[in-house]
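In this supplementary section we document a worked example of the pipeline. Step one takes a protein sequence of length 342 as its only input; no multiple sequence alignment statistics are reported here. Step two produces a three-dimensional model, which step three serialises into structure tokens for compact storage. The input and output of this example are shown verbatim.
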Amino acid sequence: MIKVAVVGGTGYTGVELMRILARHPQAELALVTSRGDAGRRVAEVYPNLRGVVDLTFQPPEPQLLDQADVIFFATPNGTAMQYAPALLERGRVVIDLAADFRLKDPQVWEQWYGQPHACPELLASAVYGLPEVNREKIKKARLIACPGCYPTAVQLGFLPLLHQHVIERTGLVADCKSGVSGAGRQAQVATLMAETGEGFKAYAVPGHRHLPEIRQGLQALTGKPVELTFVPHLTPMIRGIHATLYARLREEADLQALYERHYAREPFVEVLPAGSHPDTVDVRGANRCQIAVHRPGNGDVVVVLAVIDNLVKGAAGQAVQNMNLVFGLPETAGLELAGLYP
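The serialised model returned by step three reads:
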């Protein structure tokens, strides 16, 4: 059994990790940490895990983490990079669900996250944990940077088109909507139910932290710069990402067949039948991305619709998918989760 530690177990992604790992057939949840809830039982803080996780939150002391083979960091940006060098030296696998190792340029990281990087020497060796792109590299990795939720949906949506060079690299648009859980569990006026329940708004239009990550990922697919406009929106729902993506075709292609071929062997990407409109409710609780591709009026603009659960395929589920690859387990182990409906 693989022994697992979760650092930051009281956030939304932390509790999702516990929910998934507790039923994983080849992983043992050995340690869960929390500064604020140290000493309290997990089931006391999260009654939904009563009878499922029989652990007490521990303080995030480095020596406690040595009991685990793999350490998941479900922590705020800037935390994992404080622990990673020592853990890697001691032979542990580090999987970070935050942004500490996603960007390859430390200056770009500092620009978007407002602090210098604590271990820029590790950025080159960190593997970006999008299995549909980096599966073979992930298998050999010891430091994995899990993609953000928006970047997961956007990259999976654009990937087949860029891979086959059938769209222009300029003028790409990602018009994305997210549920409020994407903002985390900390108390914020902007995400109170009374503030969001009857509203719908864009935010961070001048620049969102996920923009350089998406651009970096799309550029890696093409080997050339891409021009992308990314506009996120906050919707009055708890879970889910809906990405509506626009691109201009540069050559004729059977788009439906292109997507079906590209994702034919991917266990967690489902291309819906032609004419479909994916719904975030259908992927709630599942480690799955559903995609539909359209060509309105048979013109030269392609519209791709991609939906994920931001807490699962956009965070905890994808992190476990990466763990499975690193340890040579079936990629679907512990993740064969049907969506929650309604």
